[in-house]
Queue: 2 jobs
Job 1
Amino acid sequence: MERLEDPPDVVIRRLPLYARSLRYLLDEEIHSVSSQELGERINVTAAQIRKDLSYFGEFGKQGIGYDVEKLLNHIERILGLDQSWPVILVGVGHLGQAIARYDGFHSQGLRIVGIFETDQHKIGQKIAHIEITDYALMPKVIRDTDVRLGIIAVPAAEAQSVADMLIDSGIRAILCYAPIILQTPDDVWVRYIDPVAVLHSMTYYLARENMP
Amino acid sequence: MERLEDPPDVVIRRLPLYARSLRYLLDEEIHSVSSQELGERINVTAAQIRKDLSYFGEFGKQGIGYDVEKLLNHIERILGLDQSWPVILVGVGHLGQAIARYDGFHSQGLRIVGIFETDQHKIGQKIAHIEITDYALMPKVIRDTDVRLGIIAVPAAEAQSVADMLIDSGIRAILCYAPIILQTPDDVWVRYIDPVAVLHSMTYYLARENMP
């Protein structure tokens, strides 16, 4: 088979949005969609969608559009979502608790299989049926369960040492909620959830509206 | 004054990360930094930093680097952070409560001034010293206080109607935690916090590692 060019990361980041939008279409019992219609739903141009998908093969037919279910299945397979992914969570402050209780993970192929915390008062309690485990036991659990995705929900001052321990224990991809840029090896994926930075990227535009 | 070219949005999104990194440098009492050093901290090339900053004027000197405090002040001014921004929050489920309690907003020029909810059992209670207010009163509060930033932390099924009401009442920028793409007018800024999509963009790479 001819090997296609590797897609840039920005394309990979858009695929989950395509998948989500296609899922909504299926819920609405819409079984066929043009790149134009799909684009309008996610604020991406039709040309961008066609270009993004072209990295992964041939989809849709000129004038007919995409078969929603087929395209969704294909994108889910590309994203590795034909399997379920175990995830561990470190930190159960207010944010960690909200993450642990969020039912959107489970329905989307992501299972939280371990919750770790240093606070002895919280260890042993349960959140969403999962027992909070002593952080000291985390390396062993990661090795025993072969989990490779980790979520960091600890304060910024502790995030780097948590990341180090996650990576040492075998975690290969980290979602970090702490407002810090982690120093990590090149073969580990790190993404950030950073509401303050996102809000600041909008205050830029709002501040401009006030200018003469 | 010569008018500089408008910076692309991707540059605006990086500015808050530059600002944060500069703040950390100041905390460490580092007062001068090269684009190389700054870049290493945020995983951006030195050339990218120089190019990004060039949209806003002349900073730093060849061989001397940037004055950390001056550059920080300048970026904060660019982002509109020489003023404090009122923000309202809609929804106080687990996530909304974690957002309301997050102390990272206040220290970064963002003040939550109103929390709104439809659940009559929660209305009147306080989170982080702010009283939860009846959602029906939201339009009046937005108009009276001239707040223009809103955070949506309601379930996906309610997010669009909340966004519509926010925008009708005068909100100009929305941070949406619901897993949905909002339909909004062109003159309203919308950004998303979407941990599932972000995790899915990493399962793509992890799934590839297993391939023969």
Job 2
Amino acid sequence: MAARRKVIIVGAGFGGLQCAQALIGKPVDVLLIDDRNYHLFTPLLYQVASCLLAPSEIATPLRTLFRHAPNVRYRQGRVVRVDTDAKLLALADDDVVAYDTLVLATGSTTNYYGKSDVEQQALGLKDLGEALRLRNHVLTCLERAVIEPEGDDRRRHLTFCVVGGGPTGVEYAGALAELVRLVLPREYPELDRRDVRIVLVEGTDRLLPAFTPRLSAYAKKTLERLGVEVRCNSLVASADDRSVTLVDGTHLATYSMVWAAGVQPADPLDQPPAGPSGRVAVDDHLRAVGVDDVYALGDVAAGHDRKGATLPMLATPAMQEGRYVAREIAEGPLAKPFRYRNRGTLATVGRSAAVGKIGPLQFTGFIGWVVWLTVHLYYLIGFGNRVRVLARWAYYYARLERPVRIIVRADERS
Amino acid sequence: MAARRKVIIVGAGFGGLQCAQALIGKPVDVLLIDDRNYHLFTPLLYQVASCLLAPSEIATPLRTLFRHAPNVRYRQGRVVRVDTDAKLLALADDDVVAYDTLVLATGSTTNYYGKSDVEQQALGLKDLGEALRLRNHVLTCLERAVIEPEGDDRRRHLTFCVVGGGPTGVEYAGALAELVRLVLPREYPELDRRDVRIVLVEGTDRLLPAFTPRLSAYAKKTLERLGVEVRCNSLVASADDRSVTLVDGTHLATYSMVWAAGVQPADPLDQPPAGPSGRVAVDDHLRAVGVDDVYALGDVAAGHDRKGATLPMLATPAMQEGRYVAREIAEGPLAKPFRYRNRGTLATVGRSAAVGKIGPLQFTGFIGWVVWLTVHLYYLIGFGNRVRVLARWAYYYARLERPVRIIVRADERS
């Protein structure tokens, strides 16, 4: 048997996973490399942080996904260097692997915009470990507030500053407000709900800037009805372990700053040459510019639409790019360049409201939420996960529970 | 309204929880103190460690359990000192709380028998954090084995030494063997199942010494059929980060020593005076000997049966003692002393076999497993948990899955 082309895909997020799945059964050998042994359904990550879902309900082991795919192998590892001349990848465990074709799908990391004090204090919301840390943190704040005598320090434990008015910030702020509304009156008789303060800070003049102004206004109104204080045209100036200061001088006494203010491409390579904003420059076939046999897609790549505008760092473009690159690899150079089809955007705002735009249609409220739930269940990987998450939602809806409210860490020896 | 008697229960394990629940609605104010904000159903902990159940399926938030109990409050905290003269408890957060009646239900911790090298290397299996650490460790060993070239170091990653042939060791060894049997052939084509070695080390001459010899023999045969190497009359002499040495000189090359060899009472007090084996001495009304208004129950107390034999450190005696102490507190000194009723013992061995003794009846095999499942679902706290765990088992049974196979830690900043 002739040696088959060896394709290495780095990153098992939405883009890398779609690419690997579309290459199942094709005449290439695929090695999928990711430091995490699971695919994470990030759109529901804020639900883990707010105690509604368990981690395993939004994470599927990669080996399970490729169980019946003899030409796709998984390898746990972190890529630290790429030699595009020799076509070699160096991994953090000192191993070196060779590729014929490389697909960079390394995604993005949280962007702290160079503010080290902010990075030091912030609670991120970008991976499962951070979501669990945030869950533990919020539950511990509630327990500490019970113990503190009434006054400043109790209120400090009950003040939560969420930074970033994009979908992640809006969804988490809404879910946190629901958590407080549902759980506090029933289970924390020692606390007064009015002592809880949730402040959502957004730099531009409206929430969800990627949506239409009408949907932004709806999101703001809904969050305010849930008790969230929305501050647009506002930025974090500095932070320490007891407070957050905004650029207008506002001082928030809090132990909790949740950072959902932006992401940056996670390019571990410094090569191929990164385009503006650090994303890898790609041509209209998603080939990295200036190097051979390297594709880049998703958040790490600067793919563009037909008007030349850079695509947003979202799951949908990454998935479309992943499928395109797989076809390009399996069927040789395609006649047609990559074309992004914008199918719409959705975000939840609290328990049973969502905003969304699909084609010409705009959704709000309960209808929006049903659309949101349907789309997310459809894209959630794994039949078992879909059933469990749907069951959890039904149970939650009927009982108004937040079942996953346990403070637990994988015990690390000191 | 007259000041009501203030009862403090330290520890929300089986004994403390039963005591608190039996005091709901009684004319006393109960404060339940535990560092963990949940009740943990420890009999199924090995299933979390072996990827079948998610943590939240065996842990229920304490505040949820006492939501409708106005006379029971929960407080997160760790007791560091008791002043039985002044009737005060000092907590790790420097707070001090006063009691009229104290119930010590602090349970037990892992016993390393003073072997610091063993304690350093061992993977415990006593709380959720340890179970998650063990799950992460085993999954990481499998991923490392894939990367290692064939040979000694690959086999070292695939060798697992389980120490202790009581229910925990037997159940975990069986579950680990099942995990390997189910998952390796389908999802780790790079590995040969015959390279995996699971060694179960027990100090006495048979597994499950608390069961009858017939059930011990059945457990051994079943584990051996699953591929577990059972070594009775054997003890760990020493351990380092690459191996375990037994007292007979056997040297096991392994990164994994799971310690299920015993527990010791978790008495944070040094007072009231501890009985033999460190358990608090109690009279036949479970009052701590030599101090006023202090009860002790469960693993931390040396309760005894009517023949004077000290009760085993198990859930059943703790639960009976918890209910007895609650009655004693609510109804004044009872005429009848505490009497333990031995209702039997059960342990699973692999996927669909269990051994057990209930009254005069002995169970083995599938029947034993059905009895085991029924009893455990009955005692599992929370309707939602019962439904989820049963659903998980049905799914698992039909699909032979180990769904919770993700490596994840609550992200701690360094």
